[in-house]
Amino acid sequence: MSSQRKKNFQIEAFKHRVVVDPKYPEKTWKILEHAIHEIYNHNASGLSFEELYRNAYNMVLHKFGEKLYSGLVTTVTSHLSEISKSIEAAQGEVFLEELNRKWADHNKALQMIRDILMYMDRTFIPSTHKTPVHELGLNLWRDVVIHSSKTQTRLRDTLLELVYRERNGEVINRGLMRNVIKMLMDLGCSVYQEDFEQHFLEVSADFYRLESQQFIESCDCGDYLKKAERRLNEEMERVSHYLDTRSLDKITNVVEKEMIESHMHRLVHMENSGLVNMLVNDKYEDSGRMYNLFRRVPAGLSIVRDVMTSYIRDTGKQLVTDPERLRDPVDFVQRLLDLKDKYDQIISLAFGNDKTFQNALNSSFEYFINLNARSPEFISLFVDDKLRKGLRDVSEEDVEVVLDKVMMLFRYLQEKDVFEKYYKQHLAKRLLAGKTVSDDAERSLIVKLKTECGYQFTSKLEGMFTDMKTSQDTMHGFYASHGAELGDNPTLAVQVLTTGSWPTQPSATCNLPAEILGVCEKFRSYYLGTHTGRRLSWQTNMGTADLKATFGKGQKHELNVSTYQMCALMLFNNANRLSYKEIEQATEIPASDLKRCLQSLACVKGKNVLRKEPMSKEIAEDDAFFFNDKFTSKLYKVKIGTVVAQRESEPENQETRQRVEEDRKPQIEAAIVRIMKSRRTLDHNNIVAEVTKQLQARFLPNPVVIKKRIESLIEREFLERDKNDRKMYRYLA
Amino acid sequence: MHKLGRGHRDKLQQFMTITGASEKVAHQTLKASDWNLEGAFDVFYSQPQVKNFTDSRHLEELFNRYKDPYSDMILVDGITLLCNDLQVDPQDIVTLVVSWHMKAATMCEFSKQEFLGGLQALGIDSLEKFRERIPFLRSELKDEQKFFEIYNFAFGWAKEKGQKSLALDTAIGMWQLLFAEKQWPLVDHWCQFLQARHNKAISRDTWSQLLEFARTVGPTLSDYDAEGAWPYLIDEFVEYLNENGIIENGQLNDLSHRR
């Protein structure tokens, strides 16, 4: 023995022979199998978790996982088969309860089994890609119990039956339903869908199809909608109580389709209860319900909107073309405003202020207001009436409200330039007669028009106001400097109007009485003294006069008359009887005006300061006039001459129209020149489109008129046709 | 001409002697061929007969024969005489062609410059030559392009001096004349329409566009395009034809037969 022997230390595995009992796996399995039995038999309390776990653990460790797993499958399957049989045997109501109970048991058992077999779950199963224990349990339940041939259909039918009964008003056990449905959901999404949901949806569709058919035959629209709404809410509630939330949209779609979409047209058009009826009778609740329900289906709202639109258009069209309505312009406009208010209300209360409905309303109004060519005139007359008397004693805010409404109608007009023309005329009359209720209201409206249409639209109107103010100052100056010498003369109040701003009137002849002429001339020289280079012409057709008259029995009256009437009446200071011819000669007033003036002095009851022979209504050339000594009136002040704005007669209307057309020609030409100047060359259709676009804020130009203007411009060598393409025009600098 | 160098002057003389052309023509031709005598001869002889030598003395005589005793213009009497000499009706359309060549400003009168210039351009210096030319002048109307120019020239020529538009009667007369040559089937209807509906003078644009219309739109109006930016008078004419059943279903009805 040498002392230099190397000593190698080796650590070796424990080599003692482990006696592997060939019966080991079988024995261990039997223990576990027994445990599973006990668990399923509600006898788990006597088991030791630790021991069972260890046994399972050892089996897996010693590579008997396969046996363990397959044993598990077999055992659980056999238990489930028994359970399945007992469920199948259950009668009537008990079926579902039994199923529910057994399911709960199974889950508990499965939990325990999984805990015991946890080691296998975590090691053997993943590595062999087998189904984990819990999932396995569920699958087995599904395959053995739920999908057993008898149970599968029976389960489905039972559930659907319960739903059906609930729909018919019975109270069912919702808790039980919820649990069973949840079971299906736990078994997998496809189980829920295939075993229950898709049948549920089919059956529901049939149910609602039938029900909706019954309802529609027996109910009116409002009731039907109430029922539909109720069913919809019911289904939503049902889902929240015992169905999968993902079913919500699906079932509501079914209800919407069967109850609403299939019957949309019939509902809307239902006689005496459909949409039109609701609109006419302001049934906000019903129409609101219709809106909310129809909103849910495709094209639902368009039907509602279209029916509403065509109804409004028809109503509006009737309104504007009804000859009765057209007699009273103020009433006409008021009705338009009322119509708008009504539908504004409906849209706000029932249709949730839906913008598309608002737009439909606006376009409808724009459509029918412009069907009547006299709309601009009437709207101006409405404003005139309001500013003349309608707005007296109205608060400032309310005045604004009315004016805003007028502006709203104004915006619908296509021919805004026609409105401008009438507005100017009526404003002139108001200002000159001093008949405006509130200066602030007038100015407020001008500001609104300016905001809407720009400075050019209102510059002349503002000029009119300025003239009135300036005239006042001028009068003060006149009387301040000449007051003394004018003492005895008639008092004069002159408004000096700047020609461009005021509506043009053709000047007419009229011989003023001597007393008046004198003071007028004094004014003229005063005015021209301070304003050189100007020309004044008396507008005798627009003036008024106050005359003090003494009648036969000494009764005195103050007569408020037009200038023409004054000229005629003053003649009777020097004569008792005058023939028409004599009056005509003396005053030189144009025949038609003179006839009208004499008519209002002699032929109107209560205002007949003159007597006519013969007593006919019409003025004939050889009539004779007498001062009416016997004239009486309850009032001291008698108003005879009125220059109130009235709706024009047909010929006057034609004339105004013509003037508007004439005014439009230069505007169109200016637009053409503007466009061509920047584009240099452009083809015909594009010019027409551009011109229309530029002018549409004022009026809609007629393409034929545009063509004529283009030709006129070619004639005047502003434009030429392109030599190669006759549709193109070129700007000539 | 005074600035010509000696060499050029000689060439000019030579050229004039050989070809018989006027000094002006000779100068132009030589200049155009870069003062190369041979080249100039080529150019000269290859040109159409129109540029032939005209005797300016003869032209003067001709002018004096027709001119008005009190002014330097040929007026109505002179023109009548001229037409007689040419054996041509004064209303004959060939007078228009002649006026066109002369670039006459107004109908029924020729200034001296217009007369001389026109005849010279045509290579006419005697009545005989003039008479010979008449068929040629007539034939020019058949040429599409020349007709176009003559037609448009006619507007300015036929209208009153100082007016922008052409009086309706004159226009109708001119149209009858011109479209007799061109064979436009709707010309009578057009004139009737104008008399019935329009009754005002004709603008230049309408005049020239009418030719376009006659050329491009067939008599059944099947290819009339309402969006075609035709003058509004023509649009109204189409309406008139449709209203009065003259054009019905794409057929041109000759209403004269219905009477």
From TrEMBL, chain A:
<protein>
    <recommendedName>
        <fullName>Cullin family profile domain-containing protein</fullName>
    </recommendedName>
</protein>
<dbReference type="InterPro" id="IPR036390">
    <property type="entry name" value="WH_DNA-bd_sf"/>
</dbReference>
<dbReference type="Pfam" id="PF00888">
    <property type="entry name" value="Cullin"/>
</dbReference>
<dbReference type="GO" id="GO:0006511">
    <property type="term" value="P:ubiquitin-dependent protein catabolic process"/>
</dbReference>
<dbReference type="InterPro" id="IPR059120">
    <property type="entry name" value="Cullin-like_AB"/>
</dbReference>
<dbReference type="Pfam" id="PF10557">
    <property type="entry name" value="Cullin_Nedd8"/>
</dbReference>
<dbReference type="InterPro" id="IPR016159">
    <property type="entry name" value="Cullin_repeat-like_dom_sf"/>
</dbReference>
<dbReference type="InterPro" id="IPR036388">
    <property type="entry name" value="WH-like_DNA-bd_sf"/>
</dbReference>
<comment type="similarity">
    <text>Belongs to the cullin family.</text>
</comment>
<feature type="domain" description="Cullin family profile">
    <location>
        <begin position="374"/>
        <end position="602"/>
    </location>
</feature>
<dbReference type="InterPro" id="IPR036317">
    <property type="entry name" value="Cullin_homology_sf"/>
</dbReference>
<keyword id="KW-1017">Isopeptide bond</keyword>
<dbReference type="InterPro" id="IPR001373">
    <property type="entry name" value="Cullin_N"/>
</dbReference>
<dbReference type="GO" id="GO:0031625">
    <property type="term" value="F:ubiquitin protein ligase binding"/>
</dbReference>
<keyword id="KW-0832">Ubl conjugation</keyword>
<dbReference type="Pfam" id="PF26557">
    <property type="entry name" value="Cullin_AB"/>
</dbReference>
<keyword id="KW-0833">Ubl conjugation pathway</keyword>
<dbReference type="InterPro" id="IPR045093">
    <property type="entry name" value="Cullin"/>
</dbReference>
<dbReference type="InterPro" id="IPR016158">
    <property type="entry name" value="Cullin_homology"/>
</dbReference>
<dbReference type="InterPro" id="IPR019559">
    <property type="entry name" value="Cullin_neddylation_domain"/>
</dbReference>
From TrEMBL, chain B:
<dbReference type="InterPro" id="IPR042460">
    <property type="entry name" value="DCN1-like_PONY"/>
</dbReference>
<dbReference type="GO" id="GO:0000151">
    <property type="term" value="C:ubiquitin ligase complex"/>
</dbReference>
<dbReference type="Pfam" id="PF03556">
    <property type="entry name" value="Cullin_binding"/>
</dbReference>
<keyword id="KW-0833">Ubl conjugation pathway</keyword>
<protein>
    <recommendedName>
        <fullName>Defective in cullin neddylation protein</fullName>
    </recommendedName>
</protein>
<dbReference type="InterPro" id="IPR009060">
    <property type="entry name" value="UBA-like_sf"/>
</dbReference>
<dbReference type="Pfam" id="PF14555">
    <property type="entry name" value="UBA_4"/>
</dbReference>
<dbReference type="InterPro" id="IPR005176">
    <property type="entry name" value="PONY_dom"/>
</dbReference>
<feature type="domain" description="DCUN1">
    <location>
        <begin position="54"/>
        <end position="242"/>
    </location>
</feature>
<dbReference type="GO" id="GO:0032182">
    <property type="term" value="F:ubiquitin-like protein binding"/>
</dbReference>
<dbReference type="GO" id="GO:0097602">
    <property type="term" value="F:cullin family protein binding"/>
</dbReference>
<dbReference type="GO" id="GO:0045116">
    <property type="term" value="P:protein neddylation"/>
</dbReference>
<dbReference type="GO" id="GO:0031624">
    <property type="term" value="F:ubiquitin conjugating enzyme binding"/>
</dbReference>
<dbReference type="InterPro" id="IPR014764">
    <property type="entry name" value="DCN-prot"/>
</dbReference>
<comment type="function">
    <text>Neddylation of cullins play an essential role in the regulation of SCF-type complexes activity.</text>
</comment>
